[in-house]
Write a structure and sequence with these properties.
alpha+beta, Phosphorylase Kinase, domain 1, Aminoglycoside 3'-phosphotransferase, Chain: A, domain 2, 10 helices, 12 strands, 43% helix
Length: 282
């Protein structure tokens, strides 16, 4: 059942919400396409018991990425406590230089930097509350607001053993010696292949961000966690914005954050991967 406020918005705008098309793929929200008699359509996401400001945070992230870069994101038409209404972008086949475009666009996002790590407000990565308290030191930010915050939650839920938590605490003390000095770059924050869309002209569109300012290598690492990114993407990115020496050796370290997040969201099937990373770095 669609939230009443959403039904009212769709009705007032002339969209047919009673013959909507369900879209598969949302891990947290239900997704629909609602059409207008004119031929226009909107993409609707809703969740009856959404966390506080959940859809507002997604709306802010999409707008922020769009405003500061040449990257296309879906336009936001409306949002409420339990829903988000977006521009419907009809998918198509990739243009020949799709991956090169995406690489250069991500580099342009990462070139937008700030003095502090974090963001103006907290937001969400999936359903997990993501703390973005502005912090001057990148290692301190990644330790406190990424690794330790999730590790402690996982331990409290019985998903990590005390030895795992201690290993993560030990790793956090070593971050300064592992990660080279990097500026705080604007990040998409959840850049797996499922959050890269292809628009009707075959060009890249970024969706479902979890934006904050952090180490640029974190976004690159996330693209490697589940795969799906062509080598031309990395070549174009590095040509536009060279990475620090040894970046590939730090990929698993950065991906400890999304692995801990997946452990919290989806359970202990992710624990072996978490422990594999800890065996290398902790």
């Amino acid at each position: 059942m669609l939230p009443l406020e959403l039904q009212e918005w769709l009705f007032n705008e002339g969209y047919d919400w009673q013959n909507e098309e369900t879209v598969a793929g949302g891990d947290s929200s239900a997704n629909l396409i609602c059409r207008h008699p004119s031929g226009d359509a909107v993409f609707v996401k809703y969740m009856a018991l959404a966390p506080v400001n959940f859809f507002e945070c997604e709306s802010e992230g999409l707008a922020y990425l769009s405003q500061i870069s040449n990257v296309r994101t879906p336009k936001v038409y409306a949002y409420g406590a339990s829903y988000l209404v977006l521009e419907y972008i009809r998918p198509n086949q990739h243009v020949p230089d799709f991956w090169e475009q995406l690489g250069r666009q991500l580099a342009s996002i990462h070139n937008f930097t700030r003095q502090h790590f974090g963001f103006v407000n907290d937001n969400y990565c999936g359903l997990t509350h993501q703390v973005n308290t502005p912090t001057e030191n990148g290692s301190a930010f990644f330790a406190e607001h990424r690794l330790l915050s999730l590790a402690e939650k996982a331990f409290d839920k019985g998903l990590l053993a005390i030895g795992d938590l201690q290993a993560i605490e030990s790793l956090c003390l070593q971050l300064d010696s592992i990660v080279p000095d990097q500026q705080a770059s604007l990040l998409h924050g959840d850049l797996w292949s499922g959050n890269v869309h292809v628009c009707d002209t075959g060009r890249p569109v970024l969706i479902d961000p979890a934006v904050y300012f952090g180490w640029a290598e974190i976004d690159i690492a996330m693209t490697r966690l589940f795969g799906g990114f062509d080598t031309r993407f990395y070549d174009a990115y590095i040509e536009a914005r060279p990475l620090e020496q040894g970046w590939e050796g730090r990929i698993d370290l950065y991906n400890l954050y999304p692995l801990l997040n997946h452990l919290l969201l989806f359970g202990q099937s992710y624990l072996p991967k978490v422990r594999q990373v800890l065996s290398v770095f902790a």
